[in-house]
């Protein structure tokens, strides 16, 4: 334990490299880490101590690898992954097979050449093939480490990354197969067929195991509304169990882990609290970072420490063959794949994919696992593997960034997802599905649509708690966006000068259709810029409002304003309304924000004309509060009420920009058309405010008419 | 049913192939489908689309069907309005908007195709043919998208559409006086809005070259 913690603390120091910006822009982090490992290993050796066999394969596979894979699987962008699944599978399966056989076979041929040194002649075909399979797998850890920093476009990233994840199944099968065969000595056709079968079982089995655990986790999360604190634990435990179960049955653990993470994510995210979500995110990132660092360092250490047997021919041939095999494989496969793709892969893309085929620690660990007795060549293999790993990580890793710049490969879009894009994505989905139906063939979109509908109808009902199950994606997205904005606002302290996300002075006013008001009501205008700022401030206020409201409601945890967010809004809006009515009685209490909505309503009812004019409020989302109509406005209405309540409050206090609500709001709802703001407002309102404070209760309603007339 | 039969109306196909860019096989298959939908008639009407069961579950089916009868999609300059029935040529023309762009195009041609596809989308939103998407029209779009969500739909749709419109206005107009009014999304604004959207690679479906038996009735 001491050595472990020591190494952990050492490794945590090393991200200090980021302090040397020049260095980290040239050299990817993984290289630095390996160098550090080398140094550390060298130091230890100099000190004469025996290096603890830190890269124990067991440690690696059980502790270091799962966090990285889980992180990758949980945050896997499902949409691009599924869209390119065919391509990814082709690369992963066929590509890896090709690489393995090519490298293994040619190595054997080289070894058989007469000019080779004598010890190589003893190398048989099967060990060569085994070596080929070990060294040909693209490594997810290395790919992640390097690709994270170069920010290429989503398509390429998901292709290489997906390939590195999925080729684990192939690697596992090949490894075990060749291992078995070399002990047997002979291979028959039946064995080959069995091999294929084995592969299918391993791959599909792994995915199934992962999916089952994922569904279990999602199901459990449905009931965790009372045990928020341990929600993250479920995610981690179930995923790890998925991995272990798969490994136990010699299925592909990596695929199980990915399937588990990907399956459970949409449902778990809908169920768990915001805090838990953050916890999961940061824990995963933390663990995967630490693991990655440790892996690279240990790789360095093991290099220095391990007993090597350097054989020039073998090693150089291996490196060259790996490169060649990769290039040929990618080019050949792309040629075939492009026949089936709508968006073809260009030569540039192919080059990046080929160049991004990095080997890493998995290859090394697999080599380490080899039995020394059966494979006298083990040390040589290990040396070769390490060389390949070093070569790919250092050379390819370092040069890929300049190459990406040079070739002007499309970079990742940093732009935030706008709501228009979301709308159009959905629109396009439906449109394409419709056109496919009209055309009459069951294409890609048709099945996706069917799956979505199935998902919505049955699965979501089971796995998502409460009302959230019926929330369509667009609304969910919109809520998330609003939430984000509100959070941003609060985090920045609700500063008055908050720039809107899109720097412009356009506001809701401008887009409302100008309809002549049925009754002449000239509400003064707010200066343009203020409205936006105000709205944002109000959102922040809203959260505080809700916090206070909550403290009356809840007995248990201190309520987090963002806690159950929207779902609770949906569920508890009626309770809130009752509560506000109660609050009405405590009007003189300065910090009694809940009053406002009630008073608002009271006012609204007393002044129907104002209300009618309101086609749409200028705060988003709008609400139609109509006391007369019992069917409550939808979820957002309550939010809106509070928002507008805050709005009024804020406008009142405009001279001293102060977020603390103090007293009652008495501004009437901002009229529609938006061309009516409130400019002459403040003074009138201050008056009203004072009057209000001194004269609580229904009399506040008298003031209603004033703003409209002023 | 996998073999290619002799294609009828070959000369007509040549003209269509040039106009729309489909291959002969694809045109043949689509023609078969057209005949199926129109009950072997020469023209297709709106009611004929009702025979497709899967289309009924689609929230924006009315817009899709309207798009087929919208003259603006027939590649005739300055044609507006709708027709009541379409022939195979028009059917094919509308379908050609969904053809994937060939890989060998240069940037200018890609831009042309992109504009075409965006124009199609724009026409779908702009139902009153006035060249702009007003707030009401946009609201209608969002409402339809959410129409399957029941009670939540209407109010939230308004909110979402408002937010979206605000975004468009912000992006396109930048600075606006309080009493200015943003009429609606014009095509240029629409273009600007969806600049990052990569319409040319997303708005495609795969058209079959070989006739398959899985034609839904």
From TrEMBL, chain A:
Residues 501-592 form the Sodium/hydrogen exchanger regulatory region domain. One of its GO terms (molecular function) is potassium:proton antiporter activity. The keyword Lipoprotein does not apply. GO terms for biological process: regulation of intracellular pH; sodium ion import across plasma membrane. It holds the Pfam family NEXCaM_BD. Residues 700-710 have a biased composition (Acidic residues). InterPro entries: Cation/H_exchanger_CPA1 (IPR018422), Cation/H_exchanger_TM (IPR006153), NaH_exchanger (IPR004709), NHE_CaM-bd (IPR032103). It is found in: Cell membrane. Residues 644-657 have a biased composition (Basic and acidic residues). Its main location: membrane. Keywords: Antiport, Cell membrane, Ion transport, Membrane, Sodium, Sodium transport, Transmembrane, Transmembrane helix, Transport. It is a multi-pass membrane protein. Residues 644-710 are annotated as: Disordered. Residues 13-405 form the Cation/H+ exchanger transmembrane domain. This is Sodium/hydrogen exchanger. It comes from Gadus morhua.
Automatic annotation (TrEMBL), chain B:
GO terms for biological process: cell differentiation. It is found in: Cell projection, Lamellipodium; Cell projection, Ruffle membrane; Cytoplasm; Membrane. It comes from the Eukaryota. Its main location: other. Residues 113-148 form the EF-hand domain. Gene3D superfamilies: EF-hand. One of its GO terms (cellular component) is ruffle membrane. It holds the Pfam family EF-hand_1. InterPro entries: CHP3, EF-hand-dom_pair, EF_Hand_1_Ca_BS, EF_hand_dom. Keywords: Calcium, Cell membrane, Cell projection, Cytoplasm, Differentiation, Lipoprotein, Membrane, Metal-binding, Myristate, Nucleus, Protein kinase inhibitor. One of its GO terms (molecular function) is calcium ion binding. It is a lipid-anchor. Belongs to the calcineurin regulatory subunit family. CHP subfamily. This is Calcineurin B homologous protein 3. It comes from Gadus morhua. The gene is tescb.
């Amino acid at each position: 334990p001491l050595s472990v913690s020591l190494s952990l603390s050492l490794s945590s120091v090393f991200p200090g490299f980021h302090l040397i910006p020049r260095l980290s822009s040239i050299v990817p982090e993984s290289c630095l880490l390996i160098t550090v490992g080398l140094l550390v290993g060298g130091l230890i050796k100099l000190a004469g101590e025996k290096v603890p066999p830190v890269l124990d394969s067991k440690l690696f596979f059980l502790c270091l690898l799962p966090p990285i894979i889980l992180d990758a699987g949980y945050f896997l962008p499902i949409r691009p992954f599924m869209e390119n699944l065919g391509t990814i599978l082709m690369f992963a399966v066929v590509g890896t097979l090709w690489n393995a056989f090519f490298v293994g076979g040619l190595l054997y041929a080289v070894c058989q050449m007469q000019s080779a040194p004598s010890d190589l002649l003893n190398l048989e075909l099967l060990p060569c093939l085994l070596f080929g399979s070990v060294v040909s797998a693209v490594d997810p850890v290395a790919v992640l480490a390097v690709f994270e920093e170069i920010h290429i476009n989503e398509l390429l990233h998901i292709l290489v990354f997906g390939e590195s994840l999925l080729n684990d199944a192939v690697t596992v099968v090949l490894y075990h197969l060749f291992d078995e065969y070399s002990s047997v000595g002979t291979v028959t056709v039946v064995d080959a067929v069995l091999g294929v079968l084995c592969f299918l079982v391993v791959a599909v089995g792994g995915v199934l195991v992962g999916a089952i655990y994922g569904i279990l986790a999602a199901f459990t999360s449905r009931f965790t509304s009372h045990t928020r604190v341990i929600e993250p634990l479920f995610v981690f435990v179930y995923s790890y169990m998925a991995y272990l179960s798969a490994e136990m049955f010699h299925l592909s653990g990596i695929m199980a882990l990915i399937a588990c993470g990907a399956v459970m994510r949409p449902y778990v995210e809908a169920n768990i609290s915001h805090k838990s979500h953050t916890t999961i995110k940061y824990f995963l990132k933390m663990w995967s970072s630490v693991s990655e660092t440790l892996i690279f360092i240990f790789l360095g250490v093991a290099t220095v420490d391990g007993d090597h047997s350097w054989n020039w021919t073998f090693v150089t041939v291996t490196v060259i063959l790996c490169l060649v095999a990769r290039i040929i494989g990618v080019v050949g496969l792309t040629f075939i794949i492009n026949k089936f793709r709508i968006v073809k892969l260009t030569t540039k893309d192919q080059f990046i994919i080929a160049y991004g085929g990095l080997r890493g620690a998995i290859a090394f660990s697999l080599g380490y696992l080899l039995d020394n007795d059966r494979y006298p060549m083990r040390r040589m293999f290990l040396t070769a593997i390490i060389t390949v790993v070093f070569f790919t990580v250092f050379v390819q890793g370092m040069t890929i960034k300049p190459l990406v710049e040079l070739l002007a490969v499309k970079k990742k879009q940093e732009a935030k997802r706008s709501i228009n894009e979301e709308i159009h994505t959905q629109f396009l989905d439906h449109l394409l599905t419709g056109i496919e139906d009209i055309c009459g063939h069951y294409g890609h979109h048709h099945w996706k649509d069917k799956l979505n509908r199935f998902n919505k109808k049955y699965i979501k009902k089971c796995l998502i708690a409460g009302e959230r199950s019926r929330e369509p994606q667009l609304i969910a997205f919109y809520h998330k966006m609003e939430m984000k904005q509100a959070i941003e606002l609060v985090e920045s302290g609700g500063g008055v000068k908050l720039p809107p996300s899109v720097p412009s002075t356009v506001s809701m006013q401008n887009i409302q259709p100008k309809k002549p008001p049925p009754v002449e009501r000239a509400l003064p205008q707010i200066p343009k810029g203020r409205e936006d700022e105000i709205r944002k401030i109000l959102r922040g206020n809203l959260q505080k409002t809700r916090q206070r409201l909550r403290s009356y409601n809840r007995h248990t945890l201190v309520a987090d304003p963002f806690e159950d967010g929207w779902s609770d809004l949906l569920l508890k809006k009626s309770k809130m309304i009752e509560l506000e009515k109660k609050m009405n009685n405590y009007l003189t209490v300065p910090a009694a924000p809940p009053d406002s909505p009630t008073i608002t309503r009271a006012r609204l009812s007393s002044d129907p004309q104002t209300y009618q004019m309101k086609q749409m409020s200028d705060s988003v989302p709008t609400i139609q509060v109509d006391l007369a109509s019992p069917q409550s406005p939808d979820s957002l209405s309550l939010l809106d009420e509070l928002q507008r309540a805050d709005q009024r409050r804020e406008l009142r206090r405009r001279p001293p920009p102060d977020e603390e609500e103090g007293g009652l709001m008495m501004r009437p709802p901002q009229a529609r058309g938006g061309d009516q703001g409130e400019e002459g407002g403040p003074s009138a309102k201050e008056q009203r405010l004072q009057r209000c404070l001194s004269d609580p209760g229904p009399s506040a309603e008298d003031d209603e008419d004033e703003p409209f007339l002023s | 049913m996998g073999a290619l039969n002799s294609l009828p109306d070959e000369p007509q196909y040549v003209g269509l192939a040039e106009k729309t860019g489909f291959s002969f096989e694809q045109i043949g298959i689509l023609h078969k489908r057209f005949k199926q939908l129109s009950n072997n008639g020469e023209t297709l009407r709106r009611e004929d689309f009702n025979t497709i069961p899967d289309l009924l579950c689609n929230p924006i089916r009315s817009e899709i069907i309207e798009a087929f009868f919208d003259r603006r999609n027939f590649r005739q300059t300055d044609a507006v309005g709708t027709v009541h029935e379409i022939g195979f040529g028009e059917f094919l023309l509308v379908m050609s908007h969904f053809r994937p762009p060939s890989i060998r195009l240069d940037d200018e041609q890609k831009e042309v195709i992109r504009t075409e596809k965006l124009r199609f989308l724009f026409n779908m939103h702009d139902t009153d043919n006035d060249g702009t998407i007003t707030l009401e029209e946009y609201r209608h779009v969002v409402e339809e998208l959410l129409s399957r969500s029941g009670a939540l739909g209407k109010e939230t749709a308004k909110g979402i559409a408002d937010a979206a419109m605000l975004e468009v206005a912000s992006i396109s107009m930048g600075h606006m006086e309080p009493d200015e009014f943003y009429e609606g999304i014009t095509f240029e604004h629409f273009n600007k809005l969806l600049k990052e959207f990569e319409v040319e690679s997303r708005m495609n479906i795969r058209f079959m070259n070989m006739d398959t038996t899985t034609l839904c009735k």
